[in-house]
Amino acid sequence: MEMLRTEFLGKKVSSPLVLPAGVMGMSFSGLHFSAISGAGVVTSKSLTLNSRTGHKGPVIAEFEGGFINAMGLCNPGIEEGLAEINEFKKVCDKPVIVSVFATSTDDFIKLTKYVNTSKGDFLELNLSCPNVFDEFGIPLAASKEKVAEIIASVKKISKLPIIAKLSPNVYNISEIALSAEKAGADALCLINTVGPGMLIDKKMVKPILSNRTGGLSGPCVKPIALRLVHEVYSCVNIPIIGMGGITYGDDAIEIIMAGATLVGVGTAVHYRGIEVFSKINEEMKIFMKEENYANLNEIPKLEKLWTKDSHCQLQK
Ligand code: SIN
User: Fold this and answer.
1) Exposed end of the chain (fewer CB within 10 Å): N or C?
2) What number does the ligand 1 atom closest to the CA of 129 have?
3) Residue ranges of the alpha helices (H) in 171-305?
4) Structural element, H or E, at residue 83
């Protein structure tokens, strides 16, 4: 895997592929299975202060372009979640991103204090879940002021580098990304699921998901992910974990060309099995050999299509 070795925020990474939050649940075994199957970095389900059962089923459905889900942030709560991560770290030295979700600065601070005591490597602030609108309203990632406030407060106390997970469901992604960077985010993760969207059960004449709406993932969102990653890459100087519809090695190469340093592979686990990580690793290597790229740094980036001046009010 020499060709795929890289570094991310000071940690050595064996492959740029990342298991995103939630894809393999929260248990030690889900994270471990992904790591031994070739993911270079694994992410926990987004953890909240208290456990949550999430939405009633159905919480996920497939359609021709991908999947729609509204899990409702089901998780065992921060203490139990961190215990699973600590178990994982006993048997695997691959970096873990601890993902946390809250709706207030105070709760993010409480979560960060817990995470500081864990063996996690990075702290992901999930500011962008699209599936809890009824409970919490518009995701925090829609407001550059809220994004900045939370990141700046967490930055003061976090022992781990901070990754802000942003939403694709905004018109000013570069403003929000710049706001996150200025407030102290060490990296960005994008995109969370797109939408929300809705599927209809024709016989029952009602939405398929119990939550009625949910976030879209899978191949249908890849062009959106490529555009957003590239736009943000054009404007910020911190690394990006790019994700959204990455299913094959070619997709991973494309999102790296768009500006990603690491690459999330989530929905593709449903299509290609957990071996998707080793398959994509191999597919990337084949492409890199064909093009004579000896390592990830040699993969060229797309010429920047956005400039801070033309696309970001913060830069005016
Ligand atoms: C969910 O639990 O509903 C998904 C989490 C997310 O999209 O951030």
Assistant:
1) C
2) 8
3) 173-183, 222-235, 249-258, 268-272, 276-290
4) helix 78-91
pLDDT exceeds cutoff 90 at 313: no
For residue 172, what is the enclosing H or E element? none
pTM of the model: 0.97
The two tokens of residue 130 are 């699209």
Helix (H, G, I), strand (E, B) or coil at 274: coil
- How remote is the CA of residue 54 from the centroid of ligand 1, in Å? 9
Q: What is the whole-number distance in angstroms between the Cα of residue 59 and the centre of ligand 1?
A: 10
Backbone angles phi, psi at 75, to 5 degrees: -165, 160
Q: Coil, strand or helix: which one is 183?
A: helix
Place of tokens 């248990």: 27
Cβ pair 194, 227 in contact under 8 A: no
Query: Tokens standing for 181?
Result: 């960077």
Catalytic residues: 129
Q: Which two tokens stand for residue 10?
A: 């000071």
* pLDDT 10s digits, 185-241: 999 999 999 999 999 999 999 999 999 999 999 999 999 999 999 999 999 999 999
Best CA proximity match to 39, nearest among 8, 80, 78, 79: 8
161 burial type by CB count under 10 A (0-12 exposed, 13-18 middle, 19+ buried): buried
Q: Where are the domains of the chain?
A: 2-54+72-199+217-315
Ligand 1 centroid – CA 45 distance (Å): 9
CATH architecture of 2-54+72-199+217-315: Alpha-Beta Barrel (3.20)
- Is residue 191 within 8 Å of residue 228, measured between CB atoms? yes
Secondary structure of residue 63 in the 3-state scheme: strand
User: How remote is the C-alpha of 214 from its chain's centroid?
Assistant: 16
pLDDT at 314 over 50: no
Q: Which atom of ligand 1 is nearest to the CA of 215?
A: 7
Tell me the three state secondary structure of residue 169: coil
Q: How confident is the model at residue 315 (pLDDT cuts 50, 70, 90)?
A: very low
Ligand 1 and 194: CB distance under 6 A: no
